[in-house]
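This follows on from our talk about sequence and fold. I would like you to pick a protein and set down its sequence and fold. Go ahead and set the record down below:
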Amino acid sequence: MSLNYSMTRKTAEELEALSELWMEGFIDVSEDVFIDAMKLHRQASNYFPTIKDIADCCSSVWEERRRKVKKLPEPIPLLTPEQIKENAERVRKAMRSKPLPVRSSAEKKDLKNHVKEKLEKYKEGENEET
């Protein structure tokens, strides 16, 4: 920056302290944003920037980048509005219906035996026909 702007000569200690202040001020700013902010300031000002000047330019760079980000289009529903209403009504009905009762282990065992018997009878019926 000192090449772009005339400034009073600083001692090595002053330059060291100044660079520390700038590093603290921009520790969380990415290098590309910082460089773009410096370019923006050079285009707009004849004076050596302050930390606040560059911070303001960083904000401008971020805003410009946000504007350039393409927004995703709204999704197009695959269902018609009528189908959406029908599905919503089905969900409402399902939410209002009573849940099936939980069966006890004895009932489950009886049910398994009942299914087993039905399968055996079905298999016997197949064997008799062949």
Notes: The chain has five helices and no strands.
